[in-house]
Amino acid sequence: MCSSDLSNPVSSAHASSNPLLQEHALPPFSAIKPEHVLPAIEQRLNTNRERINNLLQGLTNPTWESLVLPLEAWNDELSQAWSPVGHLNGVKNSDELRDAYNACLPLWSQYSTEIGQNTELFKAFEALSNSPEFANLSKAQQTSIEHELRDFRLAGVDLSGDKKTRYGEIQKRLSELTSKFGENVLDATQAWSKQITDVSELAGLPESALGLLQQQAQQRDLDGYVITLDFPSYMPIMSYADNRELRQELYTAFVTRASEQGPNAGEFDNSAVMNEILDLRYELATLLGFENYSEYSVATKMAGSAQEVLDFLDDLATKAKPQAEREFAELSAYAAETLGLTELKPWDITFASEKLRQQRYSISQEDIRPYLPVDTVIKGMFETVTRLYGIEFVEIKDFDTYHPDARYFEVHKDGAKIAAFYLDLYARAKKRGGAWMDDCRIRRTTQDGIQTPVAYLVCNFSPAVGDTPALLTHDELTTLFHEFGHGLHHMMTEIDVAGVSGINGVAWDAVELPSQFMENWCYEPEALAFISGHYQTGEPLPQELLDKLLAAKNFQSAMMTMRQIEFSIFDMRLHREHTAANPVDAATIIADVRKSVTVVPTVEFNRFQHSFSHIFAGGYAAGYYSYKWAEVLSADAFSSFEEEGIFNRETGERFLREILSQGGSRDAAELFENFRGRAPSVEPLLRHCGILGEEAA
Ligand code: ZN
After folding, report:
1. Residues 117-143 pLDDT 10s
2. 0.85 exceeded by pTM
3. What is the CA(503)–ligand 1 centre distance, in A?
4. If we measure between CA atoms, which residue out of 264, 242, 244, 245 comes closest to residue 254?
5. Which of 256, 398, 463, 464 can bridge 261 by disulfide, Cβ–Cβ 3.0-4.6 Å?
């Protein structure tokens, strides 16, 4: 590497043959090979280290131009090398690529710790924020600097030597423990299985589920059927198996995974892991000056405090509970009359609910499919946002691709290209499941002007079969609109500051606003009139099917809401009440939460918390409420369109101007108020879920 020539770090002969180290307007997918990955990332990271060192040495009075702009450019260069690697790892995996990808992960984590704790860099940002120049910067620039300072502090930059060391030890131990938590859940899930040779014991199961259980037996060289605790096996039994003892046995095994209860009691027990995680999170939070971990968690979120979150959840619980109780009473009555289940046990609820659902709404996703051929849907989705925001889409056929399924579109406004995206819709081998949006290029100011944003939109739909085009279910339609909503948030940004443009710098509990918001059009007859069209006749989705779809959508929605609230309150209270002086455990909190929130029967041995990976192995600690929080925002934002017209161009323009284009440049609460003219209200969400509240019911 040519370290003396920092303005041209890729000038060596070796580097120039590596496509990941060359400058491209779009990723050179066809040229990228697994062997390019590690050398490119190593070189980019080392180059950045040297650049930052050199920058800091010569820097006396940091300005936006002398400090932030170069860092933005170097970070962008780094992410342009990494983004296609991450994308290919997701959509065109191979053993070689996965190895190369994984080999880079520790380099990344080391690099980000180094940057986060770089005192000199922190001081440079501090000096800029205290300089007279700061007042003259744009709001986006100021927010970006404030976020930087916040993140340095949350990375422990201004701790004394001892405490910095302790911070590092805690983080290291936490990453071991959270990974151990996940391993215990996985091992406990895999440790249990049950063979059944008499098919009559599986009465009630649909053919597809029986086929899966049979396949699981064959894979183990066993006769008959094998049930496991994996979801595709667990759910059909709980939903359809007439055999009540079997449901009870499976339920017991499932809710006691990784605990001191149940069939594998004590073998993969997460109890000690959870307590140590809670101890260390508390210590980490207090080390950084927070009262407890919940306050540390909300410091980067839209919610102002843990108390505000708890008040929000309590309010929602109070409003949803009466209806949840009615739904449960209705289910109990139905189960007693029709199914002979006089007392509903936890292992009966899914089963009885499924029977009631089928009786009431005989609708299957398969009924909807013929009305949602993919080309009609995409055209309709584009038409929806053309009406809302006045943008146009142009498909570009000639681009450097990695698979024939991938398509590439440009987004135009007033004749100018403002963004672009890749659309990769179909499931195939070597492609990760699920759906997601990721950024390929961010919008920012460069020396050559504005770099326009580029997104990846990825789904896993069934491809066309023979002469039949790809047909979507309604769930898939909603998924597509959801990801498109994230994509628009990234692409429609008008912020040029990298740290807060698009989805960058948007609070965790607000980031699902634009995505859930877009889903609403999938339920509107006026929109479905052109989003749908039978693949043979062109006929839009009939009203009768739409009515059934809408009714089924809200089936037991209050019960489901209460369940999400139970998880959210438990998570928040646990991370708030567990302190060094009072190391309250999960079992105590969950028991207390259930007293006021749960409307369905539960059993003492239920240890769901021992497999609650979102908060113990994922990023949702003291943040599980984010799902409900963002749902309130998206429903309330959409209610403006309900009031003013779902295709009202002015309302669309206002949403674009106040929220969608603003990225993370201002507080999410402020953006929301600017759009809605008031603070968020939970009423629209409750109404959309069919939860009317006691007084209205
Ligand atoms: Zn999402």
Report:
1. 999 999 999 999 999 999 999 999 999
2. yes
3. 11
4. 264
5. 256
